[in-house]
Amino acid sequence: MATYRIALIPGDGVGGEITDEAVRVLDAAAEIHGFEISTASYDWSCDRYLEVGSMMPENALELLSDFDSIFLGCIGDANKVADHISLQMLLTIRKGFDQYVNLRPIKLYPGVYSPIETASPETVDILVIRENTEGEYSSNGGIFKRGTPDAVALQTGVFTWKGCERAIRYGFEMARQRNKLGGSPAGRVTNCTKSNALNYSMVFWDEVYDFVAKDYPDVETDMALVDALTMWFVKNPDWFDVVVASNLFGDIITDLGAMLQGGMGFAAGGNVNPEGTYPSMFEPIHGSAPKYTGKRVVNPIATIEAVRMMLEHLGETEAAVHVQRAIATTLGSGEVKTRDMGGSATTDELGAAVVAAMRTNA
Ligand code: IPM
Ligand code: MN
């Protein structure tokens, strides 16, 4: 029987309670589909920072490298540690494990309300591939003459040919696999860019996109400047299939994407190292909502979606499809809703409902 070793990093705020739901779904999937899960939990968080002066130990990556996959809850509690310090932990893992693809599916499940009028289960089915290790997030720069009238800040984006190419290529591969568009069997990849203004980085990015596109004559190409893309996401979400974007642009458009799919409580992401040289990491993309800690009011669907993505990544395709079906059944019935959905169910009640749907539907 296959055994998967999963590292759990609950993180801050509501991280603990959502991680409980992740484990509950993983365990149910393992039992039903005949594999084993062994977990180890790491208390890397702002509380740890306050106690010992660092979010995670120096050998954190070494510890994590033994696992098949990582589940990350959520990080950050600005009342304890400044966000730009605590969140380095997330960026360190993404970069350290060369998780160069940030996979962010945007899908609206039937029964879920989206505040965006054009959004329906028929119109919202987008996959954003966000470059996840470089670009605007390269942490290159500095602040000079800080605190003086001459203060200067520099933050340099770093775009390497290899870095852009591998993320964009992944997007084209996904377009072939997804087969979303009926009339165009191999799908479409929209290049999210800003080359009208960013005359070095984004012109370079476009060159890489054009270079990669030549290898995929069967895939439709398209481009949208990132500002216009936010408009088109709202106006015509159905136009989009796969979108490839740089690190910062991908970050921004996927929060808008989360609204298309009903809110931050539904949006999950995978930080993927496609070669499997290092473990990949799956997470809900929402924050840690410290004020709700322990209240069990947050929506666990984003977390369960992250688990679904993890199962898919581990090769447990049937289990992943099964989790997806259970989410769809539960949300479709509209019987169990958390506060963000206008209901009063707790985090664990909705998690339990999804697991119950898995069992009746096994
Ligand atoms: C995300 C988050 C992070 C990011 C922050 C918390 C550093 O917004 O995963 O989308 O910008 O990547
Ligand atoms: Mn974000």
Q: Overview of this structure, please?
A:
The chain has helices spanning 15-33, 46-52, 60-64, 83-86, 88-96, 161-178, 201-213, 226-235, 247-260, 301-313, 317-333, 347-360; strands at residues 3-11, 36-41, 69-74, 101-107, 125-131, 135-144, 152-158, 188-193, 220-225, 242-245, 268-272, 280-284. The protein is an alpha/beta fold. It folds into two domains: 1-100 and 272-362, Isopropylmalate Dehydrogenase; 115-260, Isopropylmalate Dehydrogenase, CATH 3.40.718. It has a ten-stranded mixed sheet with strand order 2-1-3-12-11-4-5-10-8-9, with helices on both faces. A two-stranded antiparallel ribbon has the order 6-7. A hairpin with a 7-residue loop joins strand 6 and strand 7. Helix 1 (15-33) runs parallel beside helix 12, helix 8 (226-235) runs parallel beside helix 9 (247-260) and helix 10 (301-313) runs antiparallel to helix 11 (317-333). The radius of gyration is 20 Å and the shape is globular. The two termini are 19 Å apart. Residues 251, 255, 285 line the site of manganese (II) ion (MN).
Short key terms for the protein model shown above:
single chain; 362 residues; alpha/beta; Isopropylmalate Dehydrogenase; 2 domains; ten-stranded mixed sheet; two-stranded antiparallel ribbon; binds 3-isopropylmalic acid; binds manganese (II) ion
Provide the fold topology:
Elements (H helix, E strand, L loop, with lengths): L2 E9 L3 H19 L2 E6 L4 H7 L7 H5 L4 E6 L8 H4 L1 H9 L4 E7 L17 E7 L3 E10 L7 E7 L2 H18 L9 E6 L7 H13 L6 E6 H10 L6 E4 L1 H14 L7 E5 L7 E5 L16 H13 L3 H17 L13 H14 L2
Parallel strand pairs: 1-2, 1-3, 3-12, 5-10, 8-9, 8-10
Antiparallel strand pairs: 4-5, 4-11, 6-7, 11-12
Helix pairs in contact: 1-10, 1-11, 1-12, 6-7, 8-9, 10-11, 11-12
This protein binds 3-isopropylmalic acid and manganese (II) ion.
